[in-house]
Specification:
Helix 1 packs antiparallel against helix 2 and helix 2 crosses helix 3. The chain is of the alpha/beta class. Helix 4 links the parallel strand 5 and strand 6. It has one domain: Rossmann fold. Strands 3-4-2-5-6-7-8 form a seven-stranded mixed beta sheet. A two-stranded antiparallel ribbon has the order 1-9. It is 38% helix and 24% strand.
């Protein structure tokens, strides 16, 4: 079932990659897939599944709409937008908008080793999250930073790794 979902998601998302607005819709589809294909430690597998968006990004609106329709297993999805790093308390996924990439070292210091999947809107030099959205051949794709996942005590499934772009 997971393989069918992954193949369908990747095929559907490739078809959506036609413009900037659809990039954010595709990021949302990927984010939902990440909830299925990343393993969080047992201690954070209760309560709502929390996605936090840091900064101004159209992905926030898309994630809110997705959260109204989808769940992570039986868990509701809670999407929150924050405008400063001081507002971040916890979250399963921290989506970092492009405007925050220059402050990436501060973000990583704030997260520490907590089991938070850091997702960036674009890969930028050393400012790379656990998963980074990139554009390859004019299409939105993602890359996985294995050392970041390990630091945050997360594990990506083989299916997710297989669909990631390698550089």
């Amino acid at each position: 079932m997971k393989k069918v979902f992954a193949v369908g998601l990747i095929s559907f998302s490739a078809a959506l990659c036609l413009g900037q607005a659809t990039h954010y819709q595709t990021m949302t589809l990927f984010a939902y897939a990440f909830t299925k294909f990343v393993l969080w430690p047992e201690e954070v597998n209760t309560g709502d599944f929390e996605i936090v968006v840091l900064g101004n990004s159209p992905v926030y609106t898309e994630l809110k709409a997705m959260a109204e329709k989808k769940k992570v297993g039986a868990r509701a999805i809670q999407v929150t937008k924050i405008n400063s790093l001081a507002e971040f308390k916890k979250g399963h996924i921290l989506h970092v908008s492009s405007e925050w990439l220059p402050k990436y070292p501060d973000i990583i210091n704030k997260i520490g080793i907590s089991p938070t999947l850091v997702v960036t809107e674009q890969a930028s030099g050393t400012s790379k999250g656990d998963i980074n959205f990139i554009t390859k051949d004019g299409k939105l794709a993602f890359e996985i930073n294995a050392s970041g996942l390990t630091k945050h005590r997360l594990k990506a499934s083989a299916e997710l790794v297989r669909f990631a772009v390698t550089n």
